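__Protein archive entry__

___
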Amino acid sequence: MKRSTERILTTHTGSLPRPDDLVQMMYDKEEGKLLDEAMFADRVRSAVNETVRHEVAADIDVISDGEMGKVSFLRLP
């Protein structure tokens, strides 16, 4: 666990914005139209990597996956 006596450590909570193509894949998955599960898993993994890079660049103290793969937080029309 990261600790500090110099400052208050910060992070965010909840979902971070997903890339548009991942959102579309999530819609397709929820509607039973996703054709390639491996491609979906790869895209979630790459979206998490992108998110972590942004968090590190922003000097976030506690890094998270941004809930990229959690469909339950996807707002369906």
About this structure: The chain has a mean pLDDT of 86. The first helix runs from residue 20 to 30. The CA atoms of residues 22 and 33 lie 14 Å apart. The radius of gyration is 15 Å.
